[in-house]
Write a structure and sequence with these properties.
There is one protein chain. The protein is mainly β and about 130 residues long. It is built from one helix and 14 strands; from the N terminus they run ββββββββββββββα.
Length: about 130
Amino acid sequence: MTSGATFSVIGADVTIRGDLEASADLHVDGTVLGDITCASLVQGASSRIEGAVKADSARLSGTVKGAITARELIVLKSARIEGDVQYETLTIEQGASVEGRFAPELAAISAPRAGGEAEEGEPRLHLAG
């Protein structure tokens, strides 16, 4: 983060009904009933999001009911996700619950690979050791 970077926090006692767009990083501890678009999302373990999530990076530890698109996605063991997931890099902690389909982000599969042929639609999953 640069010294001028900012972030916004949705507290545990807050419920938002409607879509959120943030140019800054977003930390959600409360409930969001709508879509979220932001640069970076950190979700608290007791929070709930019902809507699509689009972020450059997302670290999820609460409940998400909706599609997720993130270049870098980390799903922590307390996370409960119901929805399809698109990603470039994915880390899932043991114990996390995900009900949906996984697919690499479209930008990740559209670039040709030199010297080899990658199958389109083949997920790229990185497991933490």
